[in-house]
Recover the amino acids of this structure.
């Protein structure tokens, strides 16, 4: 009986968080290890499906990660590079779009296996993501796009009809050409457009460190102002820099809270939302309190 | 970390049950010890509120229990009895109505303290419960009513507007006189009228026993047919007999499953719904399987 | 035939007033003699029900009046006083809530007897009335609350679903404790929150007098500015002062017209609304004309 | 004061009837003297507008009466007759349509003068009335149509949007030619199509007599069965025969009650609906009771 | 086959225009030759019906033209004149209203013959057009009204319910007297009130000329500023002056584009909307581009 | 001018067909040459987009055709065959799904380029298509599925929200494995599930021939009964047999009319729907008339 009672207590502990996020939109950027490891994959899908069932409105934005590279080499294509960046020529774009589509459908499959109706989209569907060509230091790196406009209508319509939308970062420019988009950017732009309550990035790191070299300097809460200072002081480097800029951007455009979660931890999403065990780093606007402390 | 992961797993285990009862109406007859013990009271309210938040549509039907007797004696009234039954004269009815109203508001208070909007009603509000006078072996026992009609519109309206309805068993006859109603009967009539998915009685017993004298003969699942046989064989007695008849009546009128739960166990509602640990006795229709076993 | 024709003419005369208040919210503060005298009680309920049926949206706010005192003494409690004010300790509050609930249900009963569906609420239901503790000259007088917030959603929902809401003045503070509220204050706060077209107080006086001592100085129309002057000049005293302040407050917060009616006159509500015979005193905003005169 | 109280009582007496017909459709066939006498005209319009305002859903169906004849002679046309019936040739039809249109707009004008929005239609609008040519004993009497189909959508739409529909009896055949229709027939067909609660004919007689010659034999209530017998026995003659047949037809097709009212009595509609003074003859289905007697 | 393919291409060419005006309101002032010539009449009705079916929301506003004069003389009335203007006395107004009603119903007939539901209204219906008396140089010319207020609710309601509204220019003053209104003015006022995308006048001229005497000076596009200059320079005269003022007024009050079309050309409406062949003169606001040129 | 007038006439001729199919669902099976030839592709998309804009509700169901084979060989896979049928092993299925996804998105792109919002789905999205494994003469040919259930909710939801749904024939079995489905079967099953008015197959043949060898024996209209006879007599062979069976199946399950169109003719869809030039073969139910002949 004790065990059962413990279980009931866990559910009861979730009550205030369920109440807090009831009918709120939560954008989950899904990528990294959590997309490769089958166990982690299942745990992410379970988490998101649970969030959906208890009344949240999650939207998944996913990349294609290593799967794209795998298929590019599978068809024997030669990668080209400019400034160290892979050039997305027409053929690469075609493969990327195919792989991203496949990944989206496989997520639909997993979600529906848990009894929730899902629909996978690219940014083309319903005119969701409009882009313009992006250059790297002025050089043409092919069909890589920067988001200029988000039309969230299709997302609102699917949420209203109780579907779980799953989006891959492909968009059209004004001449209706296809472009690849950085998945973090897409998640951030969508979170802004739908005024998400929360934006969570599943990453392969523990979170933001005050000192990149010191694992003990992990920051569990970071106000936008501090984040800017860390950037200004050069303490943030590598792949974290654009991600953190995205977080700041999201916060300043109406998203209440952004999380950089360690996607290598099973159920990190649930842990973050339903327990007071902070996973990774939460980015907050000025004057925001940690709601796990007070009321 | 382990503990946290355990918690996440508990939540994940709840997924299929949350999905199963999504937007289903669950009528909870709240009474007995669970209404007296403050700890149990809180656990029931937490359970019902959680059910509401994760997408179920609970309706509470409550009695006033010992509180009515307490107030009757408080004002120094002399109880009258016929056939061993307390006679509900006009003054007693007045007190009963007042006490039931107060109990309802106190439940509203507890539910709203957990962040969910509730409304407490009597069967008078919105013409919910219509009754006619009930006699005991032909003798007048005062304002004790038998339900003749349920108009569930007010319940549907409140559920649609996302309130948690809390109902006390008082109704009007066709001349608009006030009557007291047995709370079990009211819960059953309401469950039938709204086609509830589940009707759960919180009681002060462990469940139905095959042999009333033998605690080991507790039945965890009982098909209507067997229930009838137990009654026919005289194995069911005392207060259990009308309750079991109510259960059979509910099942035969569209309620999918009725539970006689041991309200003395904290969180018995959650345990029953979210775990495969059966609490008390489930009454099933013919051909119904225990959904915790198979798919 | 003549009599019948006269009747038809009376109905026809009501036409412009019915048209004027079609779908407008009218808050009726119900109290005083009209709550005690059975004949007057029936006349008020008939009036409000008629208003409902011809397309107005009335909301009743009622007190418990002498009934509360009667029950307090019935249970043999000793009243305590501070500054001449009765102290509402926990037990008194409990009785007050019970009595107010009973009164509300009795009004539901009368309204439903006339064929209209009603629902009685306290300010706890749907989180309608939020209060904070009120002190008398700095001294604690117990659970007497001042309204800090009104959430009119439950009222809008019930009106939309065609119920007649009946509200008693009990509310919760931020820690979910129960408080008694002055019924006039509650009526005024609710009228403001729902932007009522009209707020009518049923009182035991003829109306506002220019000279409290002179019955002939009854004022049938009073602009807010004059009302303020009367108060400044000390011409308004006793129980009328807070009531008149409430009226001014309501007018200044969007209620179009407030009436202090003589509740001792049968059908005073209908007379006020459907005839050009002014009953009591109407409080008007600046620039408002008496609509019974002109178009 | 007495007078005022009397007025209030009249309004209160109307309560049960207002409640009874709340949101019910009432078709009023408007014609005869009540269309000519200005005083009666105003009284009919007042009655219908009042019915609309207190929550009924009236639809007026009107003829053009003597006004058509007046305009036919005004333009100097020679009337042609067959079997004693006026032949509606193309030109006559044109004038009839114009006059009926004008009458409709003049009713709109009167209704809107009382503050209710009205829309006047012919049976052409929204395809309301479809007809086929009607012959008199096999002979062609021109553009006189018999209703074959009613599409009540435009009426439902206008009622939903809170307009008072006013219909004149002109329709189209399947080749979209214009036909005149008997106004009684049109009222009856529309009442059937919208499942009206009541159909009232304003006529120039006192009602149905058991003996056409004996004014004292006026029948105030007539069950369909008796009506048939009266017809079979030849007791019903002249203009009353088709009218009574229309009444029987309406009752048998879902209209609850049909009234033949004496339109020469001011406010006969209100008197019929709001008092127990029967005006004219009520035709009832089998088993229907006079609701003014009992409950 | 070639012919068929050509047909398909014509339909495909219409695609961008259909898309452009999807669900937009287009007010068509219907008058002049197009109302007299049966062939042109049919072509206008076909055009408007097609616009309705492909998703536009057309509203027709029509005059009665020569038909009114014809009926005035038919009844042998003597025309009176003041300042060279016909005086609309009560009798003339009566005939005008009848004729306009008849014209409206005949248009309903034609539209419904093409399978679309229509409703013809005057400005009295639903209180659509409110007017005040208009004087000619200070002299009373009878029941000629100037629009003071438009209540477009009935138009929105009919459009929502998928009817095609057909309006004739008759309105009521504040005392509910009937007035005739200039049809161009009515069309313009309605276009403004419903924020029409387009307002098209079917006229008996080719369009606006830079030099009234020179047919070659036809202007196909005219910005408001230029229009004002033409008027200031006295280049616009006769019947064109009020029409052009109406156009300017419409553009300045939210109508996107106004067209003065040559109603003597069959299908001028379709040609204007679906081809890049300009018919007549388009009046544009400042900064508006001709959308047939660019995108 | 003549040319323009001709154009207007073509649009006017389309009127009855636009009216006929207004708000009707039309399922278009898109495949064959029309998917390969860029010119034809554009013409199909233009046709479907036009249908959408003029008020029809088209749904596209497409295959992947030769593109799948191209990609299978591109990644150097060895095709396996059983009974002459390609075996769809897991890897082939993966490629098929990717290619079908890509094709869907490219159609979205084309439709949105014409100004209409589209969403491409597979049968996984929203649980649209449920399948079970299909065997070829008892032998396992891999992930080839037969449709067992269609849940059209996502299609209704997208149509309601005004999107054009584009579906590729991939589905899930009860264990949530991915299967390829014959596109004709998918189109037919969807047409049945949504009660489509029309189902049109774009094929690479002229239509059904009475004698497969004789081009002159093309049948333009075929009643179900005759179709069955042709099959029974062995006159239908090759790829036409299953297609014709699908047609019969669709007609017998509520689809009003099925068309086998020659997709090699530009704008064959428009020609079929908007002209009386029959393209290919129409399959009709018993008693259905060719609506291009009669009314």
């Amino acid at each position: 009986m004790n065990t059962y009672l413990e279980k009931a207590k866990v559910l009861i502990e979730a009550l205030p968080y369920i109440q807090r996020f009831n009918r709120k939109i939560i954008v989950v950027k899904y990528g990294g290890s959590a997309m490769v490891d089958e166990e982690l994959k299942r745990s992410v899908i379970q988490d998101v499906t649970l969030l959906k069932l208890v009344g949240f409105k999650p939207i998944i934005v996913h990349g294609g990660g290593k799967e794209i590279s795998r298929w590019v080499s599978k068809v024997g294509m030669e990668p080209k590079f400019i400034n160290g960046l892979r050039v997305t020529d027409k053929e690469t774009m075609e493969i990327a779009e195919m792989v991203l589509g496949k990944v989206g459908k496989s997520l639909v499959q997993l979600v529906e296996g848990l009894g929730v109706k899902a629909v996978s989209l690219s940014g083309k569907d319903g005119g969701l993501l409009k882009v313009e060509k992006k250059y790297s230091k002025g050089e043409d790196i092919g069909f890589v796009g920067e988001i200029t406009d988000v039309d969230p209508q299709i997302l609102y319509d699917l949420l209203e009809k109780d579907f779980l939308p799953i989006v891959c970062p492909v968009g059209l420019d004004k001449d209706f050409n296809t472009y690849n988009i950085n998945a973090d950017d897409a998640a951030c732009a969508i979170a802004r457009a739908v005024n998400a309550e929360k934006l969570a990035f599943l990453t392969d790191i523990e979170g933001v460190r005050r000192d990149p070299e010191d694992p003990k300097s992990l920051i569990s809460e970071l106000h936008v102002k501090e984040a800017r200072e860390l950037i200004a002081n050069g303490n943030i480097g590598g792949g974290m820099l654009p991600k953190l800029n995205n977080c700041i951007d999201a916060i300043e455009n109406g998203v209440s809270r952004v999380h950089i979660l360690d996607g290598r931890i099973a159920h990190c999403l649930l842990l973050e939302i339903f327990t007071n065990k902070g996973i990774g780093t939460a980015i907050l606007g000025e004057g925001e309190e940690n709601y796990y402390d007070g009321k």
About this structure: Chains A and E do not touch (no CB pair under 8 Å). Chain A has a mean pLDDT of 90.
